Amino acid sequence: MRTRWKEKTIYLSKEENEMLIKKSKDANLTQSEYVRKIVRDYEPIKTDITILTRHSKAIDQINNALGKLARQAYMYDYIDGPAVKKQIEHMNFIIDDIMFNLENQ
Question: How many percent of the chain have pLDDT more than 70?
Fold first, then answer.
């Protein structure tokens, strides 16, 4: 007797389909069984993304500054090394802060 009555249709890319076939074979499950197992057992990791929100304005400013430096480099055939280094150091500080906060949640 049928215990499942809801049919679902999904669309996968070629790569996603190949991954589903391989992973279901590796798990010795049909593709349907594999998807049901993932749906039943998967628990998303709850992550506080306020750290990303806090840094979004600074990231936008760095992006704008690097874009300006790239335009100047193209126009004047000169790269302002110290200015680029300053932006990279600022970005590295933000990345370190984000990583620290994500690892310590």
Answer: 98
pLDDT per position as a tens digit, 91-105: 999 999 999 988 887
CB atoms within 10 A of CB 80: 14
Name residue 87's amino acid. Answer: Q
Task: Please report, for the chain, how many H helices and E strands are present, in that order.
Answer: 4, 0
Question: Is this prediction's pTM over 0.70?
Answer: no
Place of tokens 């480099």: 73
Domain ranges of the chain: 11-43, 50-103
Beta carbons within 8 Å of 37's beta carbon, 6+ residues apart: 27, 29
